[in-house]
Amino acid sequence: MINKKDIKNQMIQAVKTVKQTNPMAGSITNSVTINFVANAQLAVGGSAAMVYLPDEGEFLAKAAGATYINTGTFLPIYEETLLRTAKVIRSLGKPWVLDPVAIGIGSLRNQLLQEFKEYKPNIIRGNASEIIALAGQWGLDGGEKVSNTRGVDSTDSVSAAKDAAVALAKWTGGAVAVSGETDLITDGSIIARSSGGSHFMEKITGAGCSLGGVVAIYATATSPFIAALTATAVYNIAGKRAGDKVDGPASFQIQFLDELYKATADDIANNPFELTEV
Amino acid sequence: MINKKDIKNQMIQAVKTVKQTNPMAGSITNSVTINFVANAQLAVGGSAAMVYLPDEGEFLAKAAGATYINTGTFLPIYEETLLRTAKVIRSLGKPWVLDPVAIGIGSLRNQLLQEFKEYKPNIIRGNASEIIALAGQWGLDGGEKVSNTRGVDSTDSVSAAKDAAVALAKWTGGAVAVSGETDLITDGSIIARSSGGSHFMEKITGAGCSLGGVVAIYATATSPFIAALTATAVYNIAGKRAGDKVDGPASFQIQFLDELYKATADDIANNPFELTEV
Amino acid sequence: MINKKDIKNQMIQAVKTVKQTNPMAGSITNSVTINFVANAQLAVGGSAAMVYLPDEGEFLAKAAGATYINTGTFLPIYEETLLRTAKVIRSLGKPWVLDPVAIGIGSLRNQLLQEFKEYKPNIIRGNASEIIALAGQWGLDGGEKVSNTRGVDSTDSVSAAKDAAVALAKWTGGAVAVSGETDLITDGSIIARSSGGSHFMEKITGAGCSLGGVVAIYATATSPFIAALTATAVYNIAGKRAGDKVDGPASFQIQFLDELYKATADDIANNPFELTEV
């Protein structure tokens, strides 16, 4: 039986551990939102480090508590960097977060996303179309081989990605977070639906990317499922609070980062979420 | 005879179409201001996607309604990416915007800017020195082979770039936008002068780059001349409104993005501009 | 004997010269904080230009009044770009600022930081762990070969880096700035300790990087020691003023950039600092 109180206690513990220990997550992430990712990681109490080169990726994989790989923009060197980094992470059994941004665009991105199937990212975060497309590429239930992603946008609803999310979580043995109006987080047997946020999150670039980076921070301190749920919860409470204060997207981003910083462990655990069994 | 009312109606239609259809423009743009470009594109109602690799540029050229190429920072792979992307755009007859940032710096940038002459970008946006230098490099009237650009800054006035802008527009058959205190937009036969903005625009990096990105968003929905004029107008009205509220450049940037988001079709069409024939 | 009044007058002169002449500094810097670096340089009255390619680095080395090299994120092309740029700077006797971010991570970064020993950067800026690690790598007093850096964070106190800073300044004949709660600036014979700032500076990414970029702006107009002290002083006064106004890190960054812009020459020279002889 699912024990909601126990899950909330784990969330509270994760938030407190991060605020007390300032854990570092390493990232290989896109250049569009790289600054937002780092500042969001700092705001929740973590430390950020971003690299491009293969041996630097390996170094961070060893030195950091968790690693975040976001496929938003590719450089030629990524062919070497991403696999070498994933290999080290996997050999050490450390947690890592995959954000399959722009899946479907370009041969290198798709080749590497295919190879990542065997590296089993502990947490996969994406919008609904990305989650469906990744499950499809990996030949899992609920996936579709033809991606409905449009550039970096989703054209599917979160609920349409439920089966794909569950299948991905079962494959990796970790967790999957699908971002949308109501977010879905699953470890393959439990589904959490977290609500809150703001319509402004779609009017700024990087809400999803920075969420992935924050998941990696919490993944240094707790299980994949709790990390994904806690990060989603702090995004929803901070997004809600920020959205209530502003009337434009840039002001929203500023207030949102401030609210990420201010949210307490109790605030985060008490943000509304519902649990069901798969 | 120039019909100002007709032009304003076309501007209103372009703004409304963008707000209703959320069109995507793909970008290959510099890393300094890439986040600002994306957020400005989102603020006016568009969608953003940025890439570096050749096949990804080709993919976006096909998938996006328009493409934005900004030469602010070059990576080695751009030698392949920019030409392959421009070829696809041209073969499909889709609109694209060229922002010849830092023209005069480095052999690869100058080689590619030279090759772009034959790809005839539908809209060229730059400061006065960049427009004069590009016309000079392309051997057109009003150009000067020795660039007066200083890094990314202009040392020429907008009016000094009029002949170069007209010659570039006649060559491409599209439009040219010269940014400065009063902005000049021309399709080679009509000249629009758009005013507004704020002195703070020169105190933040990327006012020009993000304008180029917004031109690409409007170019998905209207003619090159109307796209350039509409984007310039929304920058001038948002810049004016933001500048009136703040006393520092970072606060300006936040308010400016908020005002980009808030500006209505009528606000934009009613921002002051004057029309003359060449 | 140290004449504090004379130093303050030189600071005032440097600030005024920058505000009046809008000098350009070229930068090769990391992609995480590149936008913040540029906006900070603009806020104090300078002009920014960022590049990646070798001949572009050489171009800027010649065209700019000073150059800023920050090793935060490496691309493969940097192997060629950084040395060719440093060679041109050195041959022209122009000032340059080295920010050895992430020293200890990756073979290319460490190889180039080693080679930079002979290029004698006029100003070295870093956190305490970076300064100790660089002195260690260069075999100077006060250094430690095994870096205590953790990603991009310091684990040492500023005072622990005093000997390393003095040794580096003596080696280069320039100045060294160690950032921390109380900042230490030395030319190898005088030590200035500058105070102010805000705890929020550690909660945003790029406070150190952008300080390095601002040091380069002042280095176009004054000596290495005065440039480092002036930049540190404007960071401390702007950080103090911004921190007093806000309760979150993103609001802090906006106010901080605004205060950088507003700080007068007198404000900056009057920010508290203490002078001692080595």
UniProtKB/TrEMBL annotation, chains A, B, C:
Keywords: ATP-binding, Kinase, Magnesium, Metal-binding, Nucleotide-binding, Thiamine biosynthesis, Transferase. Its cofactor is Mg(2+). Substrate binds at M50, G206. Pfam families: HK (PF02110). One of its GO terms (molecular function) is ATP binding. CDD domains: THZ_kinase (cd01170). Signal peptide: none annotated. GO terms for biological process: thiamine biosynthetic process; thiamine diphosphate biosynthetic process. It is an enzyme of class 2 (transferase). It catalyses: 5-(2-hydroxyethyl)-4-methylthiazole + ATP = 4-methyl-5-(2-phosphooxyethyl)-thiazole + ADP + H(+). Belongs to the Thz kinase family. This is Hydroxyethylthiazole kinase. It comes from Carnobacterium iners. The lineage of its organism: Bacteria, Bacillati, Bacillota, Bacilli, Lactobacillales. The gene is thiM.
